[in-house]
Amino acid sequence: MRTRIKVCCIASIEEAQLAIDAGADALGLVGAMPSGPGPIADEAIAEVTAYAPPPIATFLLTSEHTAAAISAHIRRTHPTTVQIVSHIDPAESARLADLEPHVRRVQVIHVEGASALDLMPAYTPYVQAFLLDSGRPAALTPEFGGTGRQHDWTVSAEFVQRSPLPVFLAGGLSAANAADAIRQVRPYGLDLCSGVRTNARLDPIKLADFVRAVRRADEDLASA
After folding, report:
1. Beta-carbon neighbour count of residue 114 at 10 Å?
2. Which 3 state secondary structure label does DSSP give 85?
3. Domain coverage including residue 128
4. Cα(203)–Cα(19) distance, rounded to whole angstroms?
5. Which residues pair with 29 in a beta bridge?
6. Which residues contact 97 (CB under 8 A, 6 or more apart)?
7. Model confidence over 10-49: pLDDT tens digits?
8. Which of 35, 39, 114, 159 has the highest CB neighbour number within 10 Å of its CB?
9. Torsion of CA 132, 135, 137, 139, to 10 degrees
10. What is the pLDDT of residue 48?
C-alpha cells in the first residue's frame, strides 16, 4: 500500500503548488488555534481550497468544538475534508455528520498514553479517518498540533491495528524517521508541518527528502 503524504501548515497558493509538485496527496490548512504554527485567515484557506486540483485533498484544521461552528467554518472555507483537532463531544460529531455529509471528516486523537485507544469507538461511526498527533488538549494553553514532538508509536501501532478506519500519523516526523514510522506503525498516511520547513517556510529540499524517504520505505515493505 502506498503511504499517503499530507503536508500541513500550507500558507499560500505558492506553497500548495510546491507541495503538489513534490508529490503530496493532501494539503493541511490551519484555521485559528490557541497555539502552534501555521494558522492563516479563512479567506486564504478558501483561496487554496479553490486552487487545489483533484485528486488533491484539502484539509481544514478547525479548533471549533460544536457541530454548528465546525459546519460554519467548513462553509466559509470549502475544503474537501475537515480535521477536527480537539476531542469534541461524540454527540457533536454525530450532528456534524448530519450537517456536512459530503465533507470527509477526520478526528484527531492526541496520544498522551494508552487511553487514546479508548476514544476510538466513540468517534468511529461518524468519521472517515483518524489522525494521531502529539498535542495536549488539556494543557493550560491547549496544544492541538504542530508541536514537533513524537509520541509513543507503540500506542499508535496498536491504534492502527484496531481501527476499522484509515489512520494518519503526525507528530515530530521528518525524512530522518519516516521509514521507521511506516515500518513500526503502518499508517495510512503521514502528516507533517515543521519537519519540512526552514524558518517557517516550506523547504523544497526537506520536502523532496521526505517524499523520497516515504516512497523508499513503501518499496522496501512491498519487497519484504
Report:
1. 12
2. coil
3. 4-223
4. 10
5. 60
6. 105, 126, 127
7. 999 999 999 999 999 999 999 999 888 889 999 999 999 9
8. 159
9. 160
10. 98
Mean pLDDT within 71-82: 98
- Which grid coordinates are listed for 159? 491504534
Residue 30: give its domain's CATH number.
Answer: 3.20.20.70
Contact 24, 55 (CB under 8 A): no
CA distance 78 to 49: 6
Q: Quick one: CA dihedral 159, 114, 111, 101, positive or negative? A: positive
Please tell me whether the peptide bond between 142 and the residue prior to it is cis, using omega within 30 degrees of 0.
no
| CA–CA dist 17, 1 (Å, integer) | 25
Give how many domains the chain has, as a whole number.
1
Q: Cell numbers of 4, please?
A: 499517503
CA–CA dist 4, 18 (Å, integer): 16
Q: What angle do CA 9, 213, 154 make, to 5 degrees?
A: 80
Q: How far apart are CA 31 and CA 42, in angstroms?
A: 7
- The percentage of residues in the chain with a pLDDT greater than 90, rounded to a whole number, is 90
**Residue at 62: amino acid letter:** T
Q: What percent of the chain has pLDDT over 70?
A: 100
Helices (H), 90-199: 90-99, 120-123, 153-162, 178-185
